[in-house]
Amino acid sequence: MSVPAVSLPSGTALSEASPPSLSQPNFLTSPGHLRAVAHLYAVDTVPLAQARVLELGCSAGGNLLPFALAYPKAAVVGIDASPAAIATGRQAAASVGASNLQLQAVEMEAFGPTFGTFDYIVVHGLFTQLPADARASLLQRCRDQLSPDGVVCISYPTYPGAAAADIVRQAIGLLSEGDPGSPAHEASARSVLSRLGTDLDPNNPLAPALRATAQQLGQSTQSGALHRQAHHGTPLYVTELIDAARLAGLDYVGDAEAHRELAPPGERPQASEADGERRRYEQWQDFATGRNMRMSLLAHAERASHATPRPDPDRLAELRIAGHFRAHAPATSTPGFVHYRNQRGRILRTREPATAAVVEALTQAWPQACSLPALIAATEGKTGASGDAHRITVRHAVQTLYRLNTVYIARDDTARPATQTATPRALPGIVHLRQRQQAAGAAVRIVGFNLWHDAVNLEQLGATETWILSRLGGRLTLVELRTQLREALQHGRVPDLDGTLLTEQRGPDLEAKAEKVLTQVLEMLWRAGLRVA
Q: Is 170 exposed, middle or buried (0-12, 13-18, 19+ CB in 10 A)?
C-alpha cells in the first residue's frame, strides 16, 4: 500500500514543470518501526542508538535521512544506481549535518562484504523491479551482510490484489495522451482514473476492485505520481517471496503492517486446518483479503523459526505508543459515538470511554510516545473502571488503536520534546529541505519528514507558513516572532493565511491578526511533528 503524507493546510500550487523523482520516507520501513514490529513477533533486534542501517535502492536517501538525524551515532548507508539521486542526497545530508549518512552510487551487483554487516536492511520499491535471478542473488547477499540479530524488510506489490492495479495501469498506458511523465500525460491519466471510478458497466464483475484501485491511485496529489506508480515492478505471491528467502538462508518473520493480523475474531479470514503451515496461511490471507502490497520481515532462518506465527497483541504493553487526534464532525453520525481524525488523516469512531480517554492522553503527550503504565496513570478515573479492570481496559484500548492503524509504535525510549517552548524550534533539516524543494531544475526531490519518520508534503505549505517555519531556529522568542510577523504582514512581505494582503491594517487589529496567524501555524507545525520545541 502507498503511505499518504501527513496532511498540511493547502497553500502554494504544485509546479507544472516536468515532475522530479521523489525520494521520501516511509515510517513502516523505518528501523524504529521494524524494531517495534519484530517485538510483536517475539524477535529481538538491535537497539537503534548505534545500529547499522542499510537501504538498497535508496534514491536520494529520503527514507534514511530522518533516522540519521534522529540517531547521530548510528551508521546509515544507502546504495542506489543513480549518480544524480546520490548527488542530491549527499548535498542534502551535508546541508543538514547528517554526517553519519553515507550514500554511494553503485550497481546492486557491487553490494557485498566490503560494506560490512547491518542490523536493519531495507529493500523498498526495488525488489520486484529486478529479474528473478537478480532477486535471488540480492537475497543471498542480504543474508551474508545481515548481522546475527538483524532483520530485512522487503516491500513489494503482491497478488492477487495487485491484479486490479495491473489492469488500471494498463488502462492508463493505453488510453492516456502525452509523453509519459509530462503534465499533459498526468492530467490525461487522472481523467482515465475518473472514468474508471464512474463509468464502468454495472455488470462488470471487476468493477468494485477497479473502482477502489483507481480511487487509491487518484488520491495522490504529487505531480508525476501516476507515472512513478506505473514502474513499480512485477508483483509476487507471498509464497514466492518466502520460498526465495528460504533458498537464501533467510525465513519469514512477519509483516511490517502487523496490525492487519490483529483484527477481532470474526473479522479476519481464518485458514483451514490444512493451511496451518505458515507459508500456506500467509497466502490464504492474501487471497481472502485481496491484499495488493506487503512489507515482509525476514531474519536468519534459525532466528525466524523462533518467531510467533502471529503478532502477539499483549506485547504491545511493552512498547511505547504515540498519536495525535482532533475531534472530527462527520456528515452523519450515530448517537453515542465520538469521532476523531488522527495526524495522518485516518478517521476513528468509538463509543468506548477507555478508547476516548487514551486518545486524549496520547494527544496531550504528542509528539512523545507513552508507555502503557503512563497511559494507565493518565486515564485514571476516565474509563469507567478502576484497579485491575481499569488497567485491562486501557490495555485493550491500546490494542484497538493499533489494530485500526491509528497510532505509531516504538520500542526504544527515544528522546522527544515534552512541551512547546517560548523559543520554538523546527525539526533539524526541515527548513533546508523546504528551500531545496523550491529550487528550480531539481531532478530528484527529497520529501519532508516529521519526528516519526513519516512523510510530510512541505510543498503544501503556503508563503506565510514557510516564512514562519524558516524562522524557527530556537533563537527568536514568541514575542519576537509575532513582532517580525506583524511587520511582514504590514509591509506585504507575507499575506494572511487565506492569501489576502493586510497592508491596510494598523494598530491593535494587525497585532491581533499576527497573534492569531502565528498561533495557528505553530500549532499546525506541532501537530504535524515538524517542531521539536
A: exposed
With respect to residue 352, please indicate whether it lies within any of the assigned structural domains.
yes
Instruction: Return d(Cα 446, Cα 5) in angstroms, integer.
Output: 13
pLDDT at 337: 92
| 459 falls within a domain | no
Tell me if 500 sits within 8 A of 425, measured CB to CB.
no
The answer to whether residues 498 and 474 belong to one domain is yes
**Does residue 253 contact residue 307 with C-beta atoms inside 8 Å?**
yes
Amino acid type, 20: P
Sign of the Cα pseudo-torsion (221, 408, 125, 309, in order) = negative
Same domain? For 54 and 150 the reply is: yes
pTM of the entire predicted model:
0.88
Same domain membership, residue 391 and residue 344: yes
- Provide the grid cell at 10: 493547502
Residues 70/454, Cβ–Cβ less than 8 Å: no
- Identify whether the C-beta of residue 53 lies closer than 8 Å to the C-beta of residue 120: yes
CATH code for position 90: 3.40.50.150
Mean pLDDT (the chain) is: 86
pLDDT tens, residue by residue, 467-485: 999 888 888 999 999 999 9
- The reply to whether 434 and 502 lie within a common domain is yes
Would you tell me how many other CB atoms lie within 10 Å of the CB of residue 443?
A: 13
Q: Mark whether 35 and 129 lie in a shared domain.
A: yes
Same domain, 381 and 243: no
Count of domains observed in the chain? 4
**Model confidence over 331-383: pLDDT tens digits?**
787 888 999 999 888 999 999 999 999 999 999 999 889 999 999 999 999 99
| Nearest alpha carbon to residue 53 among 148, 127, 109, 117 | 117
Q: How far is CA 393 from CA 280, 325, 383, 387, in A?
A: 35, 20, 8, 10
Question: 499: domain range?
Answer: 430-451+464-527
